[in-house]
């Protein structure tokens, strides 16, 4: 099933890449090392669910993953596969997840270069854009191992882009089949790209001069793949396990968006409240499209297409309609928006006319400088929470070691510091203490309802049934908002 329609750029004669020049090889290796270094930070240890995942893996191995998280991840069955691989590499230490995160990021860098080689033998511009994509300067979440599934799905998204291009250029069915399967695997890890992927298909179909049959097939196949994944997550999983509650189904039942207007309102508030950097990035790509078009670097049609993709990128937030909390999380919204922005950015090297090389060089260098700033910002984004975690864990260490028998450690936070999204919500403190302090003494975090602040969403009010009544103060941790008291206690007997 092929045809002879020509593309907008010369076709490569073969799939194998020519032997790179020494300088090109050195730059590629350097870029890969920089990408790896930015993502490999095991000293940060863990965040959120990595703590209990580490405990489960250490105590029960892979079987614990299946028994504890099988039902929860039924709607995204590959979600924890690479996380488990990281834990296996580190013998259960959550910091080893960064090994896999770094490998995925490097793979993104190399895959984007490969994707762009479908239509161009140029080196510098595709490599610069691949570096920007792999460093995701607008999405700080990507530097944290908690987002390994999202990064893995992004890798599948980029691979699918390269496969789609080769389908459009050559018309061999195996390319579009491989694209659909690759994308499906990515969505089974994390379904976030389910709206950005059809947008990518439309953009590439418009960018490459191919037959309308190929273009239509591209959009239909990629959209159908995403639709199938959505159907599987929301409907088929309920048929497989009628009494179960997967991640997607459970959240939708609790806090799904009730109307399109509500969705738009939440997204707008999140963008304007905590996503101004993302807004700046969207506007920058929109301006870039106009500059490239008006300077003749790309055709008028392609330049304005880049601008259009940038401006519609926030619409990808619709993928998070299942929970209003997701729509208030700029890391989630930033993830899907940046995938859309990548789709637009790829049009530059894919459709470049070769005109104005100095203009292109200046813009590319500017992008790299902005990316460097974004990388520093992205890594710094998490440091306050990391230090806050480590401080409390260090204070807990001598106390959990001191505990004996059925004693527990009770942490009463009068400062409102802990129990938030990135400071031990949902009793993750107990798992974190077990991992970091190598002690199985139970640790309970709670809050006093008489304190002036609102109890964090991931926290609970202190209850004698949980803390016992024999509270013996061991130490006080001073935080800006107040004190954090740490006690030894025993739960009261039921007799």
What can you tell me about this protein's structure?
- By secondary structure, the protein is mostly helical.
- The protein folds into 2 domains: about 20-380, no CATH class; about 385-490, no CATH class.
- It contains 20 helices and 4 strands.
- β3 (about 470-480) and β4 (about 480-490) form a beta hairpin.
- The model is unreliable at about 1-10 and about 10-15 (pLDDT under 50).
* Major sheet description: 4 strands, mixed
When the domains are counted, the total is: 2
Question: Roughly how much helix do the residues carry, as a percent range?
Answer: 55-70%
- % residues in beta strands: 5-15%
Number of strands: 4
- Structural class, judged by helices and strands? mainly alpha
Number of helices: 20
3D shape: elongated
The chain-level mean pLDDT equals 92
SSE layout:
Elements: H1 22-39, H2 50-69, H3 81-89, H4 97-116, H5 124-135, H6 148-170, H7 173-189, H8 196-207, H9 212-240, H10 247-255, H11 260-274, H12 276-295, H13 300-312, H14 324-327, H15 330-345, H16 347-351, H17 357-380, H18 383-402, E1 408-413, H19 428-437, E2 443-447, H20 464-467, E3 472-479, E4 482-489
Parallel strand pairs: 1-2
Antiparallel strand pairs: 1-4, 3-4
Helix pairs in contact: 1-4, 1-5, 2-3, 2-19, 3-4, 4-5, 4-6, 5-17, 6-7, 6-8, 7-9, 8-9, 8-15, 11-12, 12-13, 13-15, 18-19
Keywords: Membrane, Transmembrane, Transmembrane helix
Organism: Schumannella luteola
Transmembrane segments: 21-40, 95-116, 123-141, 147-165, 219-240, 271-295, 302-321, 333-350, 362-382
């Amino acid at each position: 099933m092929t045809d002879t329609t020509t593309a907008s750029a010369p076709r490569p004669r073969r799939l194998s890449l020519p032997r790179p020049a020494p300088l090109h090889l050195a730059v590629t290796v350097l870029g890969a090392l920089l990408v790896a270094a930015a993502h490999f930070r095991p000293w940060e240890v863990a965040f959120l669910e990595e703590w209990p995942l580490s405990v489960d893996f250490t105590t029960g191995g892979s079987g614990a993953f299946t028994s504890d998280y099988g039902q929860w991840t039924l709607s995204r069955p590959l979600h924890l596969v690479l996380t488990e691989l990281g834990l296996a590499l580190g013998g259960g230490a959550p910091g080893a997840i960064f090994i896999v995160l770094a490998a995925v990021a490097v793979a993104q860098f190399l895959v984007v270069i490969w994707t762009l080689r479908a239509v161009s033998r140029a080196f510098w511009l595709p490599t610069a854009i691949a570096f920007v994509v792999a460093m995701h300067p607008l999405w700080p979440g990507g530097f944290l191992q908690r987002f390994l599934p999202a990064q893995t799905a992004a890798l599948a998204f980029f691979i699918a882009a390269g496969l789609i291009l080769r389908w459009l250029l050559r018309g061999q069915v195996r390319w579009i089949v491989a694209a659909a399967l690759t994308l499906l695997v990515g969505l089974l890890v994390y379904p976030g790209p389910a709206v950005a992927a059809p947008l990518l298909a439309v953009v590439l179909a418009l960018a490459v001069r191919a037959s309308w049959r190929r273009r239509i097939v591209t959009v239909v196949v990629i959209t159908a793949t995403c639709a199938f994944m959505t159907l599987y997550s929301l409907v088929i999983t309920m048929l497989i396990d009628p009494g179960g509650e997967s991640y997607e189904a459970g959240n939708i039942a609790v806090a799904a968006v009730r109307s399109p207007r509500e969705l738009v309102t939440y997204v707008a508030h999140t963008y304007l409240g905590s996503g101004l950097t993302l807004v700046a990035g969207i506007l920058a790509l929109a301006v870039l499209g106009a500059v490239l078009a008006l300077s003749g670097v790309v055709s008028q049609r392609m330049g304005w297409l880049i601008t259009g993709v940038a401006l519609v990128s926030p619409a990808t937030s619709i993928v998070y309609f299942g929970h209003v909390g997701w729509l208030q999380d700029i890391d989630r919204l930033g993830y899907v928006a940046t995938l859309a922005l990548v789709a637009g950015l790829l049009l530059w090297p894919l459709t470049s006319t070769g005109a104005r090389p100095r203009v292109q060089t200046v813009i590319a260098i500017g992008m790299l400088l902005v990316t460097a700033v974004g990388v520093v910002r992205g890594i710094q984004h998490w440091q306050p929470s990391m230090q806050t975690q480590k401080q409390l864990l260090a204070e807990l260490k001598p106390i959990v070691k001191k505990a004996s028998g059925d004693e527990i450690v009770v942490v009463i936070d009068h400062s409102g510091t802990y129990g938030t999204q990135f400071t031990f919500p949902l009793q993750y403190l107990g798992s974190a203490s077990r991992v970091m302090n190598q002690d199985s003494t139970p640790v309970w975090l709670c809050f006093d309802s008489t304190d002036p602040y609102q109890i964090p969403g991931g926290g609970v009010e202190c209850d004698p049934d949980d803390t016992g009544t024999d509270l013996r103060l061991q130490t006080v941790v001073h935080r800006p908002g107040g004190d954090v008291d740490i006690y030894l206690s025993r739960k009261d007997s039921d007799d």
